[in-house]
Amino acid sequence: MLLLLSVFLTVWALCAHGQGSTCDFPQIKHGNIYDEDRYKQSFPVVPGKYFYYFCHHNFVSPSQKPWTQITCTEEGWSPTPTCLRQCFFPWVENGHSASSGQVHLEGATVQITCDTGYRLPNSQSNITCSETGWSASPICSQTYSKGKCGTPPPIDNGDITSSPVPVYAPGSTVEYQCQNLYKLEGRPTVRCYNGEWSKPPRCLEPCVISEDIMNKHNIQLRWIDRNKFYTQSGEPVEFSCKYRYRWISPEPLRTKCVEGRIAYPTCG
User: Fold this and answer.
1) Of 37, 64, 177, 244, which shows the fewest CB atoms inside 10 Å?
2) pLDDT of amino acid 226
3) C-alpha to C-alpha distance for 17 and 26, rounded to whole angstroms
């Protein structure tokens, strides 16, 4: 009886001090913990265990340090591992802003003043740094009477299929195309209406899979015998384990390219 009571009190004490809690492997969007392949097998971990994580190119942690420490607590990871987009603000075409030449974090809003006779798309006065970059290009276009439009809005990694002209009549349309391997998202054609162009499409970044990355994860392309492979965003990619290795990671062997990123499976 005394032995059972002692066991009960020990379990109660452990739970009361949070020893029954654990932290799962942190899923960090746009980031990774230090030496992820080495430590991933040790999860879940108990409170008090700490790791360091870094953010991918063009992203930073809220502390903006190269390496940020996170600690397992009873409530989970502290601080919550987060990677924020960094947006460089260039000069304003046909306008000005006090933010020119500065870098802003995701969520920041920049005020823009256009020169007389110019304006931002949809008559906005600011643009915002988002996860995918600036919400609009900092270009002030010339305003025209009777619903005419200026040069169509530029897009990253793409352009219109025709030679641009200074002024477009109301109802005019232009078509966009992306650079090789980039995938067009949205309507390829925009229309001039009331002096404004309709929303342009986006060009989604392709994925590049190299032999070095696959060797690191002990995997290979299942159906393609190449050292480097390019695929468009949204396209499926299937891996297989190298000889004498087996699949050990939560990421599936069949995955897909998502705007330049792939969640690589691991075999060990």
Assistant:
1) 244
2) 66
3) 22
Cβ–Cβ < 8 Å for 149, 197: yes
Q: Which residues contact 180 (CB under 8 A, 6 or more apart)?
A: none
* pTM beyond 0.70, yes or no: no
Closest-CA residue to 250 (of 30, 45, 41): 41
As given in the structure block, the two tokens for residue 166 are: 């200074």
Q: Provide the β-strand partners of residue 32.
A: 54
Q: CA 103 to CA 121: how far, in whole Å?
A: 22
Q: How far is CA 24 from CA 56, 71, 73, 262, in A?
A: 21, 12, 11, 21
Q: What is the 3-state secondary structure of 77-146?
A: EECCCCCEEEEECCCCECEECCCCCCEEECCCEEECEECCCEECHHHCCEEEEECCEECCCCECEECCHH
- Per the CB < 8 A criterion, the answer to whether 142 and 125 are in contact is no
Residue 121 phi, psi (nearest 5): -55, 140
Look up residue 256 and give its two tokens: 């897909």
